[in-house]
Amino acid sequence: MVSLLSGLRACVLGCVVTLASSSALAQDAWAGMAYEPVALGWSAAEVERATAGNLASIIQQAERSGDLGCWRHCARLEQIFGRLVGLARQQTERAAQLPWSLTVVRQGDVEAMALPGGQVLISEEFIDSRALTDEALAFVLAHEMAHSILEHERQTLHFARMLLPRDVPRSVADMYVEIDYNIALLKSLEPVMQQGELEADELGLLLASAAGFAPERQLGFVEREAARGDERRPIVRTHPPAQLRLDQLRLRLPLAERFYAAARASPH
């Protein structure tokens, strides 16, 4: 079963085939764009073990519906993801060890998401419905990778634990049960999850810029989301309004442009 926390953050359920990742742009100059969380309640390994069955469940669902694997965007997905992985591995000691993979499906109710262990999922139907250019697609993938690099799942679980009675010991699995059934707890976590989205936007923009994707054109995806307005009215808002995300990203453009210029000047 896919955890409610992972599913809510991604606004998807059921993506998938794995494209092998290759290192590209492995330059030490791009290290250190991300922070590494410390003093959290559970180890990264514990969170990864607790969510290990999620990918298998998603693959099974896609296989049953005949929607597993890419048809239309295989080459560009592999090429873009490959350029991002080398940079992702430079960000933290843990990110360097993750078995990064990209899984693709063709389902209309799927968008994009990342699991704590470095598994990134995306649907070709989502790519087509948003008419994603290479730059916008790079931003979406880098945003999801940023969630894994920054360990947002683990951070959110830690904050959730702090909101519950401290005298009751809880495992990671216990926390997922609590989150699945405690709507008040989820509502309390909205600021944490929304901040995670803003952080993933910022790191994603910088990663994709350092990989050689034009920053201004990356914003096309968020610009279109902002123009569409807030069509969905979820009970729990895991994402900030698209216009706020766009405004924050535009503030980061000068730095992103410097990364992009440096990437274009560097031999690949």
Tell me the strand percentage band. Answer: 5-15%
* Oligomeric state as shown: single chain
Mean pLDDT: 88
Low-pLDDT parts are 6-27
- The tally of beta strands, per DSSP, is 4
Question: Structural class given helices, strands, pairing?
Answer: mainly alpha
Q: Main β-sheet: number of strands, strand sense, barrel status?
A: 4 strands, mixed
Strand order in space, largest sheet: 1-2-4-3
Calculate Rg over CA atoms: 18 Å
SSE order, one letter for each helix or strand: HEHHHHEEEHHHHHHHHHH
Shape: globular
Bin the helical content.
Answer: 55-70%
Overall tally of domains: 1
Number of helices: 15
Distance between the termini: 41 Å
Topology, please?
Blueprint: H1 4-10, E1 18-20, H2 44-50, H3 52-65, H4 74-88, H5 93-97, E2 101-105, E3 112-114, E4 119-123, H6 124-129, H7 134-149, H8 152-162, H9 172-181, H10 183-188, H11 190-210, H12 215-218, H13 220-228, H14 242-251, H15 253-265
Parallel strand pairs: 2-4
Antiparallel strand pairs: 1-2, 3-4
Features:
about 270 residues; mainly alpha; 4-stranded mixed sheet; 15 helices
